[in-house]
Amino acid sequence: MITRCPWAGGDPLYLAYHDREWGVPLHDSRALFELLMLEGAQAGLSWITILRKRDHYREVFDHFDPARIARYNRRKIEALLKDPGIVRNRAKVEGTVRSAQAYLVIPDFDRYVWQFTGGRVIQNRWGNPGQVPAESPESSALSEDLKRRGFAFCGPTICYAFMQAAGLVNDHLVDCFRYRSLARDRRSRNSAVARL
What pLDDT was estimated at residue 183? Predict the structure, then answer.
């Protein structure tokens, strides 16, 4: 019997996400941008809702190419707001455009994000879901800096969920089968990062 984090539940999509993606260190700037935008879209909703819509999000948001999203005009935004395949929230859609514009000013988004953990995966050792925090000093620092740069929907809780998903933090419970495989002290390739 495989032991997983309880949040994975029984939905096959959620199980696959837990087993193959969540908590795996991510070092692709575009993929990190996509994940941050999807975490923002999830605000107030369940993650499974976003997972079910993720492929459609990728299609209508030009595979989360920040350069293309940054140029979205009013007509494109209005078309997105009529699309039932995404979360039709004006603030979130417009926030994605602003965030893409802010992203383009950062030379290396991967390096930028990982600086907040010193270029390393933060290895936690939680025994039960009640111990897992909703935010951390690192997620608060990331949130504050992203907001300063013009990103939207990036509060400390959203940033912590992003950090968990992107593997900056290993928050698999210690009895989860994924914990051990991800618990080695992995250094990011950007281990000696300086604040940008």
Answer: 87
